[in-house]
Specification:
This protein is of the alpha/beta class. The chain is built from 12 helices and 11 strands.
């Protein structure tokens, strides 16, 4: 309180992830000051941050990043959020398996194998991924996919970008946060969006769901025909198109004229440019962060906004 100059605490807002140190600290502080503890969903906070910075009363926000703890206890990261007085998940990427859990984030070929396990049989997967794994490791990964053991699902956009980077040989191991996706973006700058990528989504249980399996399969199949930078550029564009088209559908459903983009993926200029062009061509205002970091550095603003209104929904 000395640091911020605040003499009264009305509420404490934290990420809803139960294992974060800040969540434990927030619980302690809410007890100390005898005030409500507001648990904020990660991507809702991204949307709240952009909503606050832009000055709009409501928007449909594409919140795309590596991972955030979801309301259902799964790992989110490719979300369409209707943001205003309350927050609603209106769409997302199809949840895909992560063989080995966190290992799939460190070694992105695992993520690629997890996605393609929905299209190919184990013997085909063994042939496809033989160049990407040591023999013993591949056997373990195939067993995890077959049994579902230690293979949690994620709707993360970052993990899909990682999978593309792995298949194209851009990055085999993540040694720092966002490395595969950032290297993929740089690699794709040498290419053109000329590979036809499927953008398939449907409405399930009231939410739009974008099946990214087709993109990963097309990346694999295109490797014998197209230059790798063109595949990289095309796959990024397809992801942006799918996310933006879901947001447009949700915006039309809710009669909202503003589409935003927040989260770590918003640092990717190619994805942002593609999404902006699509949204604006359809007559929507498109907003991104210009003052607050679009990544997790801007989450605290969103949490503060949600905490101020007592909104953890």
């Amino acid at each position: 309180m000395e640091l911020t100059g605040v003499d009264k605490v009305d509420a404490v807002a934290v990420d809803m992830h139960p294992s974060f140190n800040t969540s434990a600290l927030g619980k302690e502080l809410s007890g100390k000051f005898n005030v409500p503890l507001i648990k904020c969903q990660h991507h809702f906070a991204h949307a709240a941050s952009l909503l606050s910075e832009s000055g709009h009363e409501k928007m449909v926000c594409i919140a795309a990043d590596g991972v955030g703890y979801g309301n259902d206890g799964t790992a989110w990261g490719g979300e369409i959020i209707v943001a205003g007085e309350s927050f609603e998940r209106a769409g997302h990427l199809l949840p895909q398996p992560m063989p080995g859990g966190d290992l799939a984030a460190r070694y992105p070929a695992r993520m690629a194998a997890g996605v393609l396990s929905g299209k190919y049989k184990p013997d085909e997967l063994s042939r496809i991924f033989k160049p990407y794994f040591e023999k013993n490791e591949l056997a373990i990964v195939l067993k995890q996919m077959e049994t579902g053991f230690n293979s949690p699902l994620t709707s993360s956009t970052g993990r899909i970008l990682d999978a593309i980077a792995a298949l194209l040989g851009v990055c085999a191991e993540r040694t720092y946060e966002g490395e595969p996706a950032m290297k993929l973006e740089a690699f794709a700058m040498k290419g053109k969006n000329i590979v036809d990528m499927p953008v398939i989504f449907k409405k399930t249980d009231g939410k739009y769901v974008f099946d990214t399996t087709g993109i990963i399969e097309t990346v694999y199949l295109a490797m014998d025909e197209y230059p790798y930078p063109d595949i990289a550029a095309s796959s990024q564009a397809a992801l942006a198109r799918g996310l933006c088209e879901m947001a447009i559908r949700a915006a039309r459903d809710k009669k909202i004229g503003v589409i935003g983009f927040s989260g770590g993926v918003a640092y990717n200029n190619a994805i942002i440019s593609t999404a902006r062009n699509i949204a604006e061509e359809e007559g929507f205002e498109f907003v991104v962060h210009t003052k607050v970091p679009c990544g997790d550095g801007g989450i605290s603003l969103g949490q503060a906004v949600m905490g101020a209104f007592g909104n953890d929904k």
